[in-house]
């Protein structure tokens, strides 16, 4: 072995050692990420992973999701106050950047972009309202629960997601305009008997929707409520036959 070859081997050894150290650190970080993800999915995410603010009813409105996890468990309380609303564009990548929010522990101009990859969301039983476009364009979202406390879902809250089935809680009385519009993968939705009104275009372009029940308490149905769905004419007519008024 020449002196030059010996020198090259001596230089290569620390480089190889550095690569092993870097690989070990990366594996450790992945393991920590996975462990914390499993814990947060079970008990709820920490407050610093959300943008939030106090709402007019004294509760907390989630205004943004800042975390790196694809399985999101929204906490029932932040700073000791109940989370009662999921706000406008809260989980949507289409949300305007300057929408006001408190970002605990993070500078206000920072924004992560994992939202379009979110797979599942757990909404706590404290939430009463899901705002307009809240999960809009979360194109990989397949499962989200409807908490028993829920009373209002605003327009296009779940548009362009991959949710296939939903069950609304007893106590909801109205399905707002465009509330479930453009859920193009939705196949089945179960409505509670407490529903009294289904507003115009509520299920607009839910083209794969084929299973739905007529609520016992239904009184009003909007025009074009089921426009562009996969429901038969007989299924749609059953809603208008049950209702007292067309709005």
UniProtKB/TrEMBL annotation:
Protein name, as recorded: Leucine rich repeat-containing protein
Gene3D superfamilies assigned to the protein according to its UniProt record, in alphabetical order: Ribonuclease Inhibitor
Transmembrane segments: 20-41
Keywords: Membrane, Transmembrane, Transmembrane helix
The keyword Transmembrane helix belongs to this UniProt entry's keyword annotation: yes
């Amino acid at each position: 072995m020449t002196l030059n070859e010996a020198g090259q081997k001596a230089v290569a050894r620390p480089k190889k050692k550095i690569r092993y150290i870097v690989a070990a650190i990366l594996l450790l970080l992945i393991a920590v990420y996975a462990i914390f993800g499993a814990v947060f999915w079970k008990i709820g995410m920490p407050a610093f992973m959300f943008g939030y603010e106090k709402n007019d009813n004294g509760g907390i409105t989630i205004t943004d999701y800042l975390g790196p996890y694809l399985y999101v468990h929204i906490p029932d309380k932040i700073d000791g106050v109940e989370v009662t609303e999921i706000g406008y564009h809260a989980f949507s990548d289409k949300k305007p950047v300057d929408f006001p929010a408190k970002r605990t522990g993070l500078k206000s101009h920072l924004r992560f972009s994992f939202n379009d990859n979110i797979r599942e969301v757990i909404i706590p039983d404290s939430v009463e309202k899901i705002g307009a476009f809240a999960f809009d364009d979360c194109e990989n979202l397949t499962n989200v629960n409807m908490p028993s406390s829920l009373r209002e879902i605003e327009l296009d809250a779940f548009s362009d997601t991959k949710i296939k089935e939903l069950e609304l809680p007893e106590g909801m009385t109205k399905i707002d305009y465009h509330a479930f519009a453009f859920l193009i993968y939705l196949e089945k939705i179960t409505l509670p008997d407490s529903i009294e009104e289904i507003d115009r275009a509520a299920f607009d372009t839910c083209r794969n929707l084929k299973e739905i029940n007529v609520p016992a308490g239904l009184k009003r149905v909007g025009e074009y409520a089921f426009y562009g769905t996969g429901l038969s004419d007989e299924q749609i007519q059953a809603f208008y036959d049950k209702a007292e008024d067309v709005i």
